[in-house]
Amino acid sequence: MLLLGALMPHPPLLVPDVGKEQIAKVRATAEAMQKLAAEIKGLQPETIIIFSPHGPVFSDGMAIRGGELVLRGHLRRFGSAREFVRRVDGELAEAVAREAVAAGIYTMVMDEAALQRHGIDPLLDHGVLVPLSFLDEVDAAVVAMGMAFMPRLQLMEFGRAVARAIEKVGRRTVVIASGDLSHCLTHDAPVPYNPNGEKLDREIMACLKDADFGRLARLDPELQEKGAECGYRTLLMLAGVLDGRWVEANCLSYEGPYGVGYGVVSLRPGPAGSAPSCYEQLVVEEKAAMAQRRAQESPLVRLARYTVESRALGLPPKEVADLPPVARERAGVFVSIKKHGELRGCIGTIQPVQANVVEEIRANAISAAFRDPRFDPVEPEELNDLVYSVDVLTPPEPVASLAELDPKVYGVIVRQNGRSGLLLPDLPGIDTAEEQVAIARRKAGIPADSPVQLERFRVVRYY
Question: pTM value?
């Protein structure tokens, strides 16, 4: 039985022998955590599930700590002598993994040896330990897991699998999303100040106050990135757990005294089926948006997509009608592929190497989908989720300084002793020439303080 969902922050300074006199500055958060802990104790849960953004974390799957009779951890690196020992609810952990795998999400229950093989500390991380430090009086087993850099709907689907496992096992369960919000609220924050941090926290807390998980899942990706949070993904997982239930939300506190947002929220759910599924609505919206995009895509983008689809399915290449005049010219071309808003592949040529733009697109589309060393080759089952763009480049021209660059207008190439790094123009989150050049340097492996030659180019971007 699902008893409660909750957002709990995890700054170690909330633990008395870590924070000491600093706790006075987070008193509202500490008092809200104590109030939430009392609510959890009153519910008498048998198991507490905690999603932590601090591990184990993978890009494409979920890892659950398990396989042992107990979980252990400490906060010694933060100056605390406290030791934590909690028994594991192995039955529920295994049930979550089965339900997630059945939903198509790679999930494994990892014992200590498996964690060490993957270079993960077998001890509990502070994302689990800080919430547990407030739950000493709650005699419950624990299922602890990290999160993943999966698409938003997959994170929600994992949460739905957790909910199904809870119901099938029949355990009285509380689910906690451990997470801090923006880390850039002030000029002395851990991350350089960004006004989007306050906007992000305000939006997330409004979504939680209204228990509007659809709105949470539709959060502007650029706002999320610039807001520098570490709790959004665990909240999406919790949203999946609560999906299809009426929820009574109680925002107990929010503050950001150290430039980091701390929110404490209680989410009391009704029975399964007591509300419409926002997840199912989001799936419908995503499919409709993809269908509209396919209907409106430019011929050059359709050429890239047909090329990838034909290669993945082992079919002859499909021809595209109504190609624009530029298709017969020679130019450098980049083909970019995204999946659920995340890059899935990007390969291009600065100068043309094929007979014309059509052949340039075909060659680079195949390379982006199947030969980009950062990603596994595209599989046939992914094809319906892929979004393409094509950039046709003008010839690069040298520039003398950053003053001649504009990341919204020009792409940049940095060169030094045979090394080169390129960045396309008008990329989300890149607002200054300094940022643009710094990223291009990193791509080329050129030190930040080393002299480079700069070139700029324009692109015509097709969607």
Answer: 0.85
